[in-house]
Structures are given as structure tokens and as C-alpha cells.
């Protein structure tokens, strides 16, 4: 059973950069698209972007100027960096696996990690 | 971006009821439409992909239909564990946008 686990700081100061890592176990991250999604408290889901195992990444234009997603296939990990954070970036951040072969859906998700932006 | 609009935003129903949630895309997305269930404090869980295919392990009381711009999720006979929030998502074009969600509550 594939498992994903997010890790990173729970509290970040405004204007700083938050870095999160997703570790995938019991399954390779190749050849899937490794995805980040976030959900502000009490609100809906927002797709942040994804990266392929080849290193090709696609971002949500609304966040593109502040987001970088990277991947380390040797460690079965992928990461999210979000810069210049504000209170509006407070959310639960999920990593998920996007499967393209006939599914085109997010079939496995991490449990999520809450990132709070506050001084 | 493709806008996804779900209706209703909230719904009260009873155990045993048949429930339908709709999702409309702002442009055609073929059948690249997925449905997720989310319970409080938990990650979303994939129910249906490519509009009508049931994810492995999902009860058969869940079904999906539609293509183009209009889609529906139907629960044929509500069970207590089905009271949750439901989200549609299009994966036709990036960014892969979600609907705003439908909260299904016990009447």
C-alpha cells in the first residue's frame, strides 16, 4: 500500500519561505506526477502544482512566482518551497500522487500538514 | 483557468436517501472529472475517476456520470459514513481546479 507523508515546520513568519517534503513509501514515485494541494482552514482545495519524475514541473499560475517543486527519486521524496508567505498561505498542505495511466486522478494522498503563517 | 461549480453547496439528507451532487465546468473537459470525499480532519479520498469509474474499494452505491461540461455524483442509499464533504476536480487542463465543495449533512 502506497503511503505519503508530509513533513515540515508548522509555523512560519510572514515574508519567509516555507519548505515541505513528501516521502513516499511502499511504492516508487516514478512514473507518476507528484502533486501539492492546499486547503485553508474551513475552505476548499487548491491545486498548487506537480512534478514528474523526469523533473518537469507545472505550477498554478496564481502561485507560480513564489513556488518551486523539486524531486529526489533516489530518496522517493519530493518537496515544495513557497516564498514570501503571508497569512493567506495558512493552510493544510497535502502531497498526493497523480496517476495518468487511465486514471488522471489523485489516487493516494498524505495526511496533510498544517502550516500557519504568523509572527 | 477552468472554473468548476458544484451545487448545492450544502445538503441535508437522511440515511437511506438518494442524493445527487452536480458539477459544471466553465468549458468542456471531456470526461476528465474526478470526485473526492473528505471527512473532517482527513485528506480527500478518491471515489470516482474519469467521470464514471469507481475507484477500487469504493462502495457501489456511489456512481458518477456526465461528459463535456455537466457531471453528477449520485449516492443511491445514504449510509451514516457518507456524511462528509464532496469535491469534483477537472484534470483536463492545468491548473487542475476543484469545485468549491458540497457538505452533506444529516437531516
Write the layout of secondary structure elements.
The complex is a heterodimer of chains A (119) and B (107).
Chain A: E1 3-7, E2 11-12, E3 18-25, E4 33-39, E5 46-52, E6 57-59, E7 67-72, E8 77-82, E9 91-99, E10 105-109, E11 113-117
Parallel strand pairs in A: 2-11
Antiparallel strand pairs in A: 1-3, 3-8, 4-5, 4-9, 5-6, 7-8, 9-10, 9-11
Chain B: E1 4-7, E2 10-13, E3 19-25, E4 33-38, E5 45-49, E6 53-54, E7 62-67, E8 70-75, E9 85-90, E10 102-106
Summarize the structure.
Chain A has 119 residues and is an all-beta fold. Chain A has strands at 3-7, 11-12, 18-25, 33-39, 46-52, 57-59, 67-72, 77-82, 91-99, 105-109, 113-117.
Could you describe the 3D structure shown?
The complex is a heterodimer of chains A (about 120) and B (about 110). With about 120 residues, chain A is mostly beta strands. Chain A has strands at about 5, 10, 20-25, 35-40, 45-50, 55-60, 65-70, 75-80, 90-100, 105-110, 115. In chain A, the strands form two sheets. In chain A, strands 2, 4, 5, 6, 9, 10 and 11 form a seven-stranded mixed β-sheet that branches. The N and C termini of chain A lie far apart (about 40 Å). Chain B is globular. Helices cover about 0% and strands about 50% of the residues of chain B. By secondary structure, chain B is mostly beta strands. In chain B, strand 4 (about 35-40) and strand 5 form a beta hairpin. Chain B has a six-stranded mixed β-sheet, with no helix packed on it. In chain B, strands 1-3-8-7 form a four-stranded antiparallel β-sheet, with no helix packed on it. The interface between A and B is medium-sized, with 23 and 24 residues.
